[in-house]
Amino acid sequence: MRLRVLLATPSSPERLHTLMPWAWALRTAGHETQIAGRPDFVEAITATGFVAVPVGPEGADGTRLDLPEDAEGIADHALRWRPEMVLWDGAAPAAADAAARCGATSVAALGPYEHPAHPGAHLTYDCLPPSLREPDGTARGQERTGVRFVPYDGSGELPSWLGRKIRRPRVLVLGELAPQTVAALLSSAEGLKAELLCRLPQDRVPAGVRLPSQIRLLDSVPVMATLPTCTAVVHDGSAALTMAAATLGLPQLVVGDGPQGTVAAVADRLAAYGAALVAAPGGPVPALPSLVEDPGPAERARLLAKEITGLPTPREAVARLVEAAAAR
């Protein structure tokens, strides 16, 4: 059975990227796919190589796709295109309402975020491994099927330095880190037997801070190409980056310095599991040796990675999607 599948995403590059493994799994299995999003997010969608369907109003809150106008726009297109399935990000519940209107199978593909339960999903997939799920084992109050998180962060160019032989452990440092956090990290790197790759322009180095010899400052880093070469990562709390590093078995230091000043809930659960250190916004930053030289977080991170890679991939889940669509 060949399906038409309409995916839906809010205007968030991170959330779009967490849907892409589903989109590619469906396309490579021979199914027809389109992605619905706000008009001002169309360019980001088409950059992935998929057909974009503009829906809803421009300039609305980009973190969610949940307005009546969103549901109406998705439903109008679905009634014309007639998809057998609508697969939506957890922050795009308008797609579930649209699926009900056009009689399509509704699939919630939950990323590593917090979402309230939505009654409109026939199937709910949760990319969090059992060890990081809510205590009751459900997917935000719904029956769920586990699926592997597949890291993706868009296209990029491989720099020449990344192809060189790695001579010592490597730590990637990236994110919107506050000056005091940068200063604390650089100071604690003195004498550390590891190379630090910092996505940090020279002009963002706090005044008076001495750069240890093993630090490399970079304006840009192809994150998903660099992470597999690392032994640890320091970042500002992104849920997708937290899960990407967890999938690769990397211990993490997570600092809530991002634009929202918060740490994703999945990072807190990772810390409770023992595979990460989390510093609260404005709080003390753990020294890098505690991340790199302590075997505890690394061992727990490797154990969690085995759990994650034991889950079926989106490609392996496609057969179940076809069965669900055929049964309706």
Automatic annotation (TrEMBL):
SUPFAM superfamilies: UDP-Glycosyltransferase/glycogen phosphorylase. Keywords: Transferase. Residues 24-58 form the Erythromycin biosynthesis protein CIII-like N-terminal domain. InterPro entries: EryCIII-like_C (IPR010610), EryCIII-like_N (IPR048284). Residues 185-323 form the Erythromycin biosynthesis protein CIII-like C-terminal domain. Gene3D superfamilies: Glycogen Phosphorylase B. The keyword Transferase applies. This is Nucleotide disphospho-sugar-binding domain-containing protein. It comes from Streptomyces fimbriatus.
